[in-house]
Amino acid sequence: MNPYVRDRINRKLETLSDERLYQVLDYVEFLEARYAEKPAPVINVFQRFTDGVEDTLRAGGLAVGTVSEAMGFLSKAMGVLNDVAQTTRTVATDVVSTARTVADQIGAPPPAGAGATAGPPAATPSAPVPPSSPSTAPSTPPTPAAAGSVTP
User: Fold this and answer.
1) Residues 37, 51 within the same domain
2) How many folded domains does the chain comprise?
3) Domain assignment of residue 61, given as a range
4) The dihedral formed by the CA atoms of 106, 108, 109 and 111, expressed in degrees to the nearest 10
């Protein structure tokens, strides 16, 4: 859109009453439906809802001032909902990012210099190996040590 024409139209619109502005809106929508050379930009669900409410109020024969006031309140509410939606998106993005970071850290080797050694951990031959299953456990329970004897 030519910015000079847009500015000139805006200057002319500022001089009109709300009732006349709705007539201009109706005419612009008629022109758009009939002669649009490109598709209208996609609007979000909140804006579609607001436009629908405004059209319904106007069709109901409410006074232009009442419709304008109701739309002002609705616009403020939609602003709050848009802020909530944006904040929710930001929080969700942060949660996903943190989850990926944690998942990467769990799958990654420990950082160097933090007591980690290169290669697999060394086995300690003096440490007893616990039984891995009940079938390899001794069949008889260990006997208690004799009284007065010292167990090493």
Assistant:
1) no
2) 2
3) 43-106
4) -90
Task: Please give the pLDDT value at position 124.
Answer: 47
Residues 102 and 79 both lie in one domain: yes
| Residues belonging to the chain | 152
- How would you write the chain as a 3-class SS string? CCHHHHHHHHHHHCCCCHHHHHHHHHHHHHHHHHHCCCCCCCCCHHHHHHHHHHHHHHHCCCCHHHHHHHHHHHHHHHHHHHHHHHHHHHHHHHHHHHHHHHHHHHHCCCCCCCCCCCCCCCCCCCCCCCCCCHHHCCCCCCCCCCCCCCCC
Residues 4 and 59 in one domain: no
Q: HSE on the CB side for 120, CA within 13 Å?
A: 3
Whole-number pLDDT of residue 91: 94
Q: Convert the pLDDT of each residue in 7-24 to its tens digit.
A: 999 999 999 998 899 899
Question: What Cα–Cα distance (Å) separates residue 84 from each residue in 11, 78, 88, 148?
Answer: 34, 10, 6, 75
Residue ranges, the chain, pLDDT below 50: 114-120, 122-125, 133-138, 146
pTM of whole model > 0.90? no
Both tokens of 6, joined, read 């847009």
